[in-house]
UniProtKB/TrEMBL annotation, chain A:
Keywords: Membrane, Transmembrane, Transmembrane helix
Pfam families named among the record's database cross-references: ActD
InterPro entries per UniProt: ActD
Regions crossing the membrane: 56-78, 98-120
Domain of life: Bacteria
Protein name, UniProt field: Membrane protein
Keyword Transmembrane: yes
From TrEMBL, chain B:
PANTHER family: POLYSULPHIDE REDUCTASE NRFD, PTHR43044
Major localisation: membrane
Entry keyword Membrane: yes
Protein name in the entry: Molybdopterin oxidoreductase
Membrane disposition: Multi-pass membrane protein
Native organism: Dyadobacter beijingensis
Magnesium recorded as keyword: no
The organism's place on the tree of life at top rank: Bacteria
Pfam families recorded: NrfD
Keywords recorded for this protein, A-Z: Cell membrane, Membrane, Transmembrane, Transmembrane helix
Subcellular location(s) of the protein: Cell membrane
Segments traversing the membrane: 39-60, 80-101, 113-133, 159-181, 220-240, 260-280, 301-322, 342-359, 371-392, 412-429
Similarity comment: Belongs to the NrfD family.
């Protein structure tokens, strides 16, 4: 997570269903929600928050194509042109024999490329573990909703009341 | 509140809340090592030390210390290699294939099973290094340019395919496992009381905060990694089987090998998962998470894959006779009735007959019986590889070179080394990392719990005690 600054209202929810239903309710009431933090994935929550669909799959496909091309090129060039070797009477340049390694290379590039993209796009990495968080209970049993005050035109009391009405059991103020 | 109708048996017992899941799984990570753990760890270190001495001597003196001869050039080394790689397959099956099939019972066992995969592949790789004889030349298997000292590798050789398959399998499994660990490491980081554990778990959790956006991406890449790992795991044992199947040796040169090897791999892997989980659930008091339901389901997989293996043995034998190639026929006839008949019948009994006992519901729900059969299956699967490798080789085309293989103490010692390594790594894992995937269990808790508490979030005990409240969370007071 990137560094945070400013003033936030933090709603603490007790139940994943409650928070999932609270999000559209609050958005309808005009509250701009920054993010919801949960101990496990809640299906439909990112759509309810209006997050765009992740494009990491496109990146993964690109990495896969890259891997496939790199490995195939290596084999065709080394076996076919740089130093052809006839071993066991096999044709040195034979694409069917290259299928296993091409497949492995594709998987390797896709997996690593995708995971590195995942880490970078989420700002995950070594040295980020002292970044502040809204509530540490978000990795245990609570569902934390963060609302950035500077992005909202409503007053603190209005948002606080809306959060409580939507099922939040606590509303805290965080200043970074 | 959504309620799922109980079509399936519940997977989580004891009316757990989210806080209970955190507490139950983190308990052993946060506690100081128990006496039992220290004894077990000490024993596995002793085993590892003995094995290391044998291995050091193998490398110092050369492969002549093994019982190999000019007819039997591959024996325990490759047997152990295939055995360990096979064991690894269950972990990927549980974490990847069952994820694609949306099987919720995988959530309680996938973490430990995948750790087992990684350690088993490390053990398998150690036999590859061993059988090279000169492990410092291992980089010759990599595609390095000519000027580096060797020719390019032969990409037409299944042995080179194996290098790529095993290394890809290992690294992709490791990444898949680590990505699954990050949310749980963050949970432990947020509960940590000591500076050292806060720093260590914090570093490896890499700043995970559990935002909805991160979770959406997490789920997406888990799905793609599962989709990649599924053909990957099948390709790995297919390629391992091609090490044999593409060579013109009677008994090896068969097209049935890839599916037969893959089924055998999953069969032996599940047996090893059973062995490990049956002990882990008792030691860490996880009976509510790894229930009889899980054990029974795994036994069903063992019966299924065991039956596939049985059918493969019989098919192979039938084709050896029906194919009319006398060398092929002799290789199989010799397996059954030749000097290694005991190995063949040990394999048949352990792998074909024993899993069929699980058709009885009472037996497959019996913990001690499951443990016993799992050990038997692993012994049987070791014999399968021994039978394939040694009995196919020991009677050559020329009767004057017919011979027998007998292991020396270094063959045995190097095998013991892999056990020491495996259990040392597994014990370290089970102490310092959560053995059950907390985030995934919480995600399926509502739909799989036997009885739901009134408030599913529960009360975090650690915070009730007033401990472990990080400084940056207090500034609101």
């Amino acid at each position: 997570m990137a560094e945070l600054s400013g003033k936030y209202l933090v709603g603490v929810y007790d139940d994943d269903d409650t928070v999932l239903h609270a999000v559209p309710k609050l958005r309808k009431a005009g509250v701009k929600i920054k993010e919801v933090y949960s101990p496990f994935p809640i299906h439909g929550l990112d759509e309810a928050l209006g997050h765009p669909r992740t494009r990491i799959g496109i990146a993964a496909f690109m990495f896969g194509v890259t891997g496939c091309c790199c490995v195939l090129t290596l084999m065709i060039w080394t076996m076919g042109y740089d130093w052809p070797m006839i071993i066991g009477g096999k044709d040195p340049l034979s694409i069917p024999n290259y299928i296993p390694i091409t497949f492995e290379g594709t998987v390797l590039f896709t997996a690593f490329g995708m995971v590195i993209t995942f880490l970078i796009s989420n700002g995950l990495g070594p040295g980020t573990h002292f970044h502040p968080r809204f509530d540490v209970r978000a990795t245990d049993n609570k569902f934390i909703m963060a609302i950035e005050m500077s992005r909202n035109s409503m007053t603190e009391e209005e948002i606080s009341r809306a959060l409580k009405d939507s099922g939040a059991e606590e509303v805290n103020i965080k200043q970074f | 509140m959504h309620v799922t109708s109980p079509v399936r048996e519940p997977l989580i017992q004891g009316g757990k809340t989210y806080a209970d899941v955190t507490e139950d799984i983190c308990r052993h990570v946060e506690a100081t090592p128990t006496k039992e753990w220290k004894i077990a760890f000490g024993l596995s270190l002793i085993v590892l030390a003995y094995g290391s001495v044998c291995l050091a001597w193998t490398w110092w003196e050369g492969l002549g210390v093994w019982g190999l001869n000019k007819t039997v050039g591959w024996a325990w080394d490759i047997t152990n290699f295939v055995w360990w790689v096979g064991i690894g397959h269950a972990g990927t099956l549980i974490s990847a294939i069952l994820l694609l099939f949306r099987q919720k019972w995988r959530t309680s066992i996938n973490r430990a099973a995948e750790a087992m995969t990684i350690f088993a592949v490390i053990c398998a790789a150690s036999f590859i290094l061993m059988h090279m004889g000169r492990p410092w030349m291992a980089y010759w298997a990599l595609p390095l340019p000519n000027a580096f000292g060797s020719l390019w590798v032969n990409f037409n050789s299944p042995l080179v395919w194996d290098v790529f398959a095993i290394s890809t399998y290992f690294s992709v499994s490791l990444v898949f496992w680590y990505i699954g660990l990050i949310p749980d490491l963050a949970t432990i980081r947020d509960r940590a009381t000591s500076k050292v554990s806060k720093f260590m778990y914090g570093t490896f959790a890499m700043g995970w905060d559990g935002s909805a956006k991160t979770w959406a991406r997490y789920e997406y890449i888990s799905l793609i990694l599962a989709g990649l790992s599924t053909p990957l795991v099948l390709s790995v044992h297919t390629i391992v089987s091609m090490d044999f199947a593409t060579s013109v040796i009677p008994g090896w040169h068969t097209t049935i090998f890839p599916p037969y090897f893959v089924a055998g791999a999953i069969f032996s892997g599940f047996a090893m998962v059973q062995n490990l989980m049956l002990i882990t659930r008792v030691v860490y008091k996880l009976e509510d998470y790894i229930t009889l339901e899980h054990i029974e389901t795994m036994n069903k997989v063992i019966t299924l894959t065991g039956s596939v293996v049985g059918v493969a043995y019989i098919t192979e034998f039938f084709i050896a006779w029906y194919g009319g190639v006398e060398y092929e026929y002799y290789a199989f006839f010799n397996r059954m009735t030749g000097p290694y008949w005991w190995a063949y019948w040990a394999m048949m009994t352990c792998n074909v007959i024993s899993p069929q006992l699980f058709w009885s519901r009472k037996l497959r729900r019996s913990i001690s019986f499951t443990f016993f059969i799992s050990v038997i299956v692993n012994i049987g699967m070791w014999f399968e590889r021994f039978v394939i490798i040694v009995t196919s080789l020991h009677r050559d085309y020329v009767p004057s070179s017919w011979t027998m293989f007998s292991p020396t103490r270094y063959d045995i010692g190097d095998y013991i080394f892999s056990f020491g390594l495996f259990f040392t790594l597994f014990l370290l894992f089970s102490k310092y990392l959560p053995v059950v995937n907390m985030a995934e269990v919480k995600a399926v808790l509502r739909s799989t719990s036997a009885q739901l508490p009134a408030k599913i979030a529960g009360v975090a005990k650690v915070r009730q005690r007033g401990a472990a409240e990080p400084a940056y969370n207090k500034d609101q007071e």
